[in-house]
Each structure stands twice: as structure tokens, then as C-alpha cells.
Specification:
This protein is 3% helix and 37% strand. The protein contains 1 helix and 12 strands, in the order ββββαββββββββ. The strands form 4 sheets. The protein has a 4-stranded mixed β-sheet, with no helix packed on it. Strands 4-6-8-11 form a 4-stranded mixed β-sheet, with no helix packed on it. The chain has a two-stranded antiparallel ribbon with strand order 1-2.
Length: 147
């Protein structure tokens, strides 16, 4: 496949998809879709996929019970952005699961809360495969897959 260089904006009447191609099998995997509207998640546990969710903003609704959002198998360059669409602080938890106890979060969480323990929390990169937001409210979480 040839490389293309553009000197101006790229325009599309639909979306732009970033893909990867397996050099051995030729299998095409969608990494991210750019340009689509936000995805409104339902009040349920949800397993994300790259074709529908990567590169798009996902709106987490007010939830009636603890909910788990599971990321797809890691694909380098995939991005996931989660924001809260509810109107008040939750009394339930939101769990973001990397999908496997061998896929670990790297990075940190900076938070503000009402009991003034506003500290940064860091994943150690070798044992944190789930992130639990306890009684969450206003939030924006950005996940970038580096594998």
C-alpha cells in the first residue's frame, strides 16, 4: 500500500476509519472511527469494540446498579473517551475493566471530591486491570491503548 500525503484538510461525508492489517494473514482490524456522533451507552454492563467505540466519545448514563464497561482486546492506537451524562452524583460504582488480568492500566487519575483528599492515584503498570469509580459524578476518562 502506498503512503498518501495531504497538504490540506481531509473531508469525508461519513467517517474516517483507521485500520491495521495483519502482515501474515491480511486480516483487517478497525482501530478507530473518527467523525461519528457520541455513543450513548445504556444502563447496563457493556463490552466495547473498536469499530463502534474507539475514537468516539461515550456518554455514561445515570446508573441503577454497579456497572462494568469492558475494553476490547488491546489494539495499538485505539482510544476511548468516557464522560458522565447523568445529572447528579451516583450512589453506584462504575468499573472499567481492561478485559484481562494481563492487560494493565498505566498512568494516573487526578480527582476532586468532597472530603478534600484530592490526590493523584497512579496505576503501577503491572497489576491494575480494573479501575473502579466509587459513587462517581462528573467525569471524563481518556484511555489510549499503547500495545
Amino acid at each position: 500500500m502506498a503512503n498518501s500525503t495531504f497538504s490540506g484538510p481531509i473531508r469525508s461525508e461519513s467517517t474516517i476509519k483507521t485500520i491495521s492489517k495483519n502482515a501474515t494473514t491480511g486480516t483487517i482490524t478497525e482501530v478507530m472511527t473518527m467523525g461519528d456522533a457520541p455513543v450513548a451507552l445504556a444502563d447496563e454492563d457493556k463490552t466495547l469494540d473498536n469499530a463502534t467505540h474507539s475514537g468516539r466519545t461515550m456518554v455514561v448514563p445515570a446508573v441503577a446498579a454497579n456497572r462494568t464497561i469492558t475494553l476490547p482486546s488491546p489494539t495499538a492506537g485505539a482510544t476511548f473517551k468516557l464522560i458522565y451524562g447523568g445529572a447528579a452524583e451516583e450512589t453506584e460504582n462504575l468499573i472499567i475493566d481492561s478485559g484481562s488480568d494481563t492487560n494493565f492500566f498505566i498512568g494516573g487519575v487526578q480527582h476532586l471530591d468532597t472530603n478534600a483528599d484530592n490526590v493523584s492515584v497512579y496505576a503501577d503498570g503491572n497489576s491494575n486491570s480494573k479501575l473502579t469509580l466509587t459513587d462517581f459524578g462528573i467525569m471524563e476518562i481518556n484511555i489510549i491503548i499503547k500495545r
